Amino acid sequence: MRVRLGARNGYEIEIGAGALQSLGAVARHVLAPEARRIAVISNRRVFELYGKPALSSLRDAGFIASYWLMGDGEKYKSLRTAERALQFFSEAGLERSDGVAALGGGVVGDLAGFAAALYLRGVGYIQIPTTLLAQIDSSVGGKTAVNTRVGKNLIGAFHQPRAVISDTMTLATLPARELTAGWCEAIKQGAVGSRRLFDHTRRLLADKNKLVKEMQTKTGDHWGFSSQAEPLARLIAAQCAFKAQIVAHDEREETGRTDARSRRILNFGHTVGHALEAVTSYKRFRHGEAVGYGMIVASEISARLGMLEASELELLRASIRLAGRLPRADDLDENAVLRALKSDKKSIGGHLQWVLLEKIGQARIVSGGEVSPHIVRASLRAALSA
Questions:
Q1: Is 274 in the active site?
Q2: Is 121 annotated as catalytic?
Q3: Are 53 and 79 in contact (CB under 8 A)?
Q4: Contact yes or no for 184/323 (Cβ under 8 A)
Q5: Does residue 249 carry a catalytic annotation?
Q6: Contacting residues for 318 by C-beta, under 8 A, at least 6 apart
Q7: Are 240 and 182 in contact (CB under 8 A)?
Q8: Which of 56, 330, 339, 348 lies in the 20 to 30 Å Cα band around 248?
Q9: 48: left (phi over 0), alpha (psi -120 to 50) or beta
């Protein structure tokens, strides 16, 4: 499918089992004709699984391919790591016509995209997401950033990839928690996007145990997919189509927009999710897990404001339970979480911007000035003790 960006050509997303094999051909197509070098950023775990075929595909297409491995986890999505990535680009001899390939999950994609945006004032890069969360969300849309001590993604740039290659075979080797994180993001997009997308996601989730078992069937030295591969690929495509539509109409998340197709609705669950990640120093939660809690908080607020029916709140909670068990959160200091909310990068005019629900599939952006501190605290308490 294609992400359309106004007068610009946009870029294509390729989804399917074995898509990684096309990396070299795709890079040759989307980069400048004179491109000679590709710098691959990954982490050790992912590179041990998929680094060799990625490099082989690039070299078969005539590129000089080099690689650098960053640390694994949110704590490595930092300015210090970005500086090391920029040094790697320089040592690899990248020129303006060359490119970067991000091979990994959302952390790798964000860091590599951010460094690509800075180097020589911007070089082209290709996203190769290897987690469910990255395939349906973070690899699409051009948001790149790093974390700081005062908050998540406060330093970043909009830098659209030249292409996205989502090989569904990489999902077969994911740990259970990474799948849970991805399913939470899938629920998020359905909750704000459309009831049809939400129901599509929930149907596949309802058979998640069978899906995971069949995804992780190994024959000899190869991970294989069964009959569940095609339904999963179709769901990823549906999720990407929704995200692409939002990005096409609001690429840079205009602060003045509050309509149902504002890119800001994608922040559902992220206000509290980012705060939870910050207060635990990015060590306890996967991003999607934190967003899972954040969605419950936002839905509790919606219900307490009289916007969301109790049955819809319970359906959302039940869907998040289907995604998998979330890490414990009832031991966190709620005052620390509330303080962390004040650093949210989406604040406007001194107020948080809550993405709430009128019903599943219909979001509304509400200024924090319309939500009393009492409701926020009560909703946070109810969600974290769940």
A1: yes
A2: yes
A3: no
A4: yes
A5: no
A6: none
A7: no
A8: 348
A9: alpha
382 contacts: CB under 8 Å, gap ≥ 6: 296, 300
Q: Which of 287, 304, 346, 364 is catalytic?
A: 287
Residue 315, token pair as written in the block = 């359906």
DSSP, collapsed to helix, strand or coil, labels residue 194 as coil
pLDDT at residue 21 tops 50: yes
Q: Is 287 a catalytic residue?
A: yes
Q: Answer yes or no: 283 catalytic.
A: no
Task: Please confirm, yes or no, whether 143 is among the known catalytic residues.
Answer: yes
Higher pLDDT: 221 or 26? It is 26
| 200-222 per-position pLDDT tens digit | 999 998 876 666 655 555 444 44
Structure tokens at 340: 């962390």
Do the strands 163-167 and 353-359 form a parallel or antiparallel pair, or are they unpaired? Answer: unpaired
The domains of the chain, with CATH numbers, are 2-173 (3.40.50.1970), 176-384 (1.20.1090.10)
185 is catalytic: yes
Supply the pTM of this predicted model: 0.92
- Catalytic: which of 270, 286, 346, 364? 270
Q: Which of 159, 264, 267, 277 is catalytic?
A: 267
Alpha-carbon Rg for the chain, nearest whole angstrom, is 20
List the beta bridge partners of residue 351: 348
